Structure formats: C-alpha cells, structure tokens
Amino acid sequence: MKFATYHDGTRDGQLWVVSRDLSRAIPATGIATCLLEAIETWDDASPKLAALYERLNNFEEPFATRFEPERCLAPLPRAPQWLDASAFLNHGRLMDKAFDNPPNPEFETIPLIYQGASDDFRGPLADVEFPDDKLFIDMEGEFGVVLSDVPMGTSAEEAEAHIRLLVQINDWSLRAVGPREMRAGFGFLQAKPSTAFAPVAITPDELGDHWSNGRVVLKLHVEINGREVGRADGREMHFSFGQLIAHCARTRRLTAGTVVGSGTVSNADRAAGSSCISEIRVIELLDEGAARTPFLTWGDRVRMESRLPDGSAPFGVIDQRVVKA
Amino acid sequence: MKFATYHDGTRDGQLWVVSRDLSRAIPATGIATCLLEAIETWDDASPKLAALYERLNNFEEPFATRFEPERCLAPLPRAPQWLDASAFLNHGRLMDKAFDNPPNPEFETIPLIYQGASDDFRGPLADVEFPDDKLFIDMEGEFGVVLSDVPMGTSAEEAEAHIRLLVQINDWSLRAVGPREMRAGFGFLQAKPSTAFAPVAITPDELGDHWSNGRVVLKLHVEINGREVGRADGREMHFSFGQLIAHCARTRRLTAGTVVGSGTVSNADRAAGSSCISEIRVIELLDEGAARTPFLTWGDRVRMESRLPDGSAPFGVIDQRVVKA
C-alpha cells in the first residue's frame, strides 16, 4: 500500500491512499482520518485500506483524482517519536574526520542514534526556513521506518515485524552547531531543525526484493540546484532497521507511529557520491586538500528521489528550497 | 487553573479540571477531550475552562466528584516534544564530577538540553518498569513548562508568554548507560526511559509569587522508601524557562504541547539534600571517600512532592515503585 497526507488545516492532515504508480489518489474516508490513526488501529484499518488500494489500482474507484504532491504534508506531519541513527559506517567515518571527533570504540557494535524532534515534520515541497545561512545548512538523505507499538526488550529478530511503513527523509542539519552539541554530550538540538519527508509512505512489500535484510536496497539520487551529487545505495547500511529498533526499545517501549531513520545513505565507492554536503567537503579535503563545495544558502534547491530499476520513484520526490525565516 | 488526565482507554486520556485544593474534579466535557486539545485551542478553550474551574472551586458544580490521583495518567500522556535541560548548575557540576566529564567552556552561558522521548509519559502512581537493575536506576526531580506554539527565533523575553502550564517531573535515568551515550555525542536514548509526571498541571498564576523570573520557586521534597533525601528549591535555576525556550526555538519552531524541563532541582547548600541518587553518591564520594547510597532496585519507592508554605502540594504527588519489566 501507498499513503500520502494532504493538507486540510489540521495538524495531522488527511489520509489519502495513493495508487502504486503515484498517478491517482483517494481519501481514506471512513477508515482513518489521518495516517497516525491508521497505524494505531492497523489490525482493523489495514484490510480496509488494502481493499481500497486494490480498487484504486484497478481503476474501480470513480472518485479517485490525480495524485497531487503539492498538496502533501509529510506522511506523518507529526509523529510520537523520531529516532535517527547513523547506520552507514562510511558516513560515520567521514563525519568523524569532518568534525575531528574522538575515536568511538563501539563504532561497529553499538548503533549511534539521536532522539530528534517529531512535532513538526515538513512536507516534500515545502520551503525550509532557517534563521541564518552562516550556520552551515546541510541536508542528509535517508530512509526510515514507521513502527507499530514495540514492547520494551524486543529483539532485532522480532523487531522487523513491527515495521508498518517505509519512508524517505531529508534530515536537515546545521553543521556550525553540530560539533559543539556533540562535545557537550546532550546530543543534537539546534543542529537538527525540522526534518522533511518524501510524500509517499509505503508498506515494505511494495519494494519486493529491494526491501531485504531489514534494509532499503535502493539508490538515493540527490541533487543540489539540478546537479546530481549522490546516488548511494541503501544496501551498505551496517545495522539493519531491526537492530536499530531493538537498540531503541532496550529500556523503553516505543509507541505506534515512532519513526526510525537510517542516517545518511553512504557507500564506500566514491563513484556513488554523497547524500550530504559535509561528506562531499571532507572527501574534497582528503582528496584535494581543501573543501570547495559550499553549504547551502538562500534560494538553493535540494531534490531527493530513490528509484527502482524501472526508473519509478516509490516514495515520490523531495524538492525543497532553502529560505530565510 | 488545575488540570488532570484520567485514564479512559485512549492514548491521550480524558481532561478533567481539578479544584484548587485538589479535593474535587469534573470532566471538561464539551470544552476539550484531552489536555493537548485544550492547549492547541487555548484561546477558545481557556475562558470556558476558567469558568468551569471557578464554578468547581465555588461548589457550584453538582456533578463534581472526589479527585482521584489513582485514575491519573500524566497530564499529557504523550506530548509533541520533550526537551529537558540541566539548568541547575550545582547539579551539572556534581554530575560532571560523577561522570568524569571533560570541562565544558560554555557551562554558564549555553544551556545543556537534551531531546527526550515524549510518546509515553508515565502517570504519577504507575509502577515504572526497567529491564535490569544493574543499569543503575536513578530518579531526577524536576519542574517543567508546557508551551503554546512558539515561533522560530523567539527571544527569552518573549518566550515566557508561551508558557501555558507548569508541571512536576521525575525524569527516570539509567546511570550505567548515560556516560557512554554522552561520550558517543548523540545524546541520551537508552539512558532516559519514559518520564513520569505529577498528576496535576497548573497555570503559572496558581503559584502567585512562587512563579518568579521564569522559575518555580518551591521546595521539591524527594523521598526514597519513606526517607526524605531532598528538599531543594527551584530558586537556584541558573537559566530561566524563558531562556531555555529561546535556546530550543533558535533554529526551529516548537508546536503547542511541547514540554521543557528544568533538569534536576539542586541547591548549593548541602542541607537541601539532592533530587537524584547520582548527586547523593558523588557528594558521599567527595565528603566521605566512598559512595554508599545504592541506586534503586525492584520494589523501591520514590516519592516527590513540591510544597507551598502552607504545606499544600500544588501538583499533587509522584509516588512510584520500581519493578522488573
């Protein structure tokens, strides 16, 4: 199934079911008003949503309309919780060099995950506001999962059964603040403004073999101002989503609608480019002696799209412009 | 005004208005189903809630019943966001010694605030479950504020006008995990299980002069298994709640219902005792050469109550038992 959330003046928006090819959509009226409600009542709602999705794909819903990404909020405009990992170790190694971080002896065995703000996720085409472009505005292209209720102590093996939906994410970041917040030990706050999401959340089965071992095995194409800078594949995620969920649920339960992110998609092969500017800059520094790609400023556009081999984009497109608050 | 949330089978619970003396209560039927809805619609809801509160206090509500804390969830069983500071520098200095943290040059000028989980706040009398008592189970007695929508860039001076309610908090902590998570730089996750709240959330005017300079000027009485270990006063909070809010809103807006915590209430005067065990232990270590107060284990009880000079407890009482998950 595929879902989107249209702006309707409420904080949670209105749930729409989107056709497999993202051409058409229909509101989930009478099943769930918003996506969070659908996830909270999944056992009851999902068979009804599946039936509606099938009718929509079969052109049996006369009231379906063209799918309009420009009406979309984030699939979950607000979520109970947002936990974002750094599960691509290639990214972690480069960022440690960029930030001159001290060595982390558990780098390969204990996932790094920060608790982020989930009260104000941004839509796929919304302008993103920042107070100051001297804060080194950066993007982070990621994949994520939306969970059902997860009991405390759930194992990595059990955790995958709690994954309801997959999402595609741009975790906006302010690099001038991040290193100070890391050193202070309390984690990211000012360094992580509101996170943005591609318009369509999908059930894992929609990816077929491209959902594998608890990983989204897709290339994430990232463009800055129309120039592709990244095409890294989700395959190299060191920790699976199951492992990330188990880490988060070790000392607490997670409630339905919790979103867990992969962290910046990153590959060891330099030809894959990068899903964030900091990575590009540290590679330039290592290879050429100086970083030359600038961070983002007012008017810059960031586009992110993951593609199946047939060229289709299962999550739709993130295409945002950086603006002054 | 004073508010509580009764368990009614929903995730957000049912909003009740509580009398000033916490003796009686009445549901806010027809005004707001839950406290979050009341905060989101405050301009419309608050005059109606104020009228109901006045009638309740004047014994003019025939359907009022005895206030029953045993029916209470946290005032906000889930909130859009939870941002917890360490605004009592006496606590911060002691914890830096306890954890052997490196010096933080901005200790007195930039508040330390971590982003916590807000999807699963615990009620005042609920058993608190932990997976393992070797994780050094500890409490943190705090005050907090619940906010209206706060625009990005709000100043400390403007921020106080966004404070809708005051709350009293026990920020449960696992000290065996905290130092590792601080060193890793991504902030607390496993070290901060679900946070608990006293049953009653109150508007700042309810405290009279005891809400002053953006601080809750009340003693917080903390007991472990019936023995009082802390009676620290909120007066010594180094950063005001206005300053904390401004810090949080520097690079993003905060949505209505966001909770900001003070961090462990702590006074320089050793006679005030401590609102967490780690502080007690580091003082023992400094004064007596060895920590002897143990962390908590199964069956231990923690009670927290802040008191006005007349002995009344404006937020009610947190009284929880530690149990194995």
TrEMBL record, chains A, B:
A GO term, aspect molecular function: fumarylacetoacetase activity
Keywords recorded for this protein, A-Z: Hydrolase
Listed Pfam families: FAA_hydro_N_2 (PF18288), FAA_hydrolase (PF01557)
Domain Fumarylacetoacetase N-terminal span(s) in chain numbering: 1-78
SUPFAM superfamilies: FAH
Keyword Hydrolase: yes
Name by which UniProt lists this protein: Fumarylacetoacetate (FAA) hydrolase
